[in-house]
Amino acid sequence: MVEVxxxxxxxxxxxxxxxxxxxAPMTRCMADDDLVPTEDMARYYARRADAGLIxxxxxxxxxxGQGYPNTPGLFTTAQIQGWRRVTExxxxxxxxxxxxxxxxxxxxx
Length: 109
Hints:
This protein is α/β, with parallel strands linked by helices. It has helices at residues 2-5, 39-46, 77-92; strands at 9-10, 16-17, 22-23, 53-60, 97-102.
């Protein structure tokens, strides 16, 4: 069973996962006050890059969709650049990361 869990998995013609382990999304609240992903976030995700696939924490898609303080966004140039640093850090360690897009709905802050 362990051999199967740790064996590569071809997801599609573009991506082969190193193994069948997926890191589930967890809200970390580590973005800065402008909701830009930080270097701490890049290091956090890079340390977990040996998972077959990382699903990022909820990433808000517009200002009115924020549910918790310091959750990262993906709607400004600075936020996109921050996620680029996170993604590059994960890729440098051989991992793959997928963004969980998020809007908390009518209860947003």
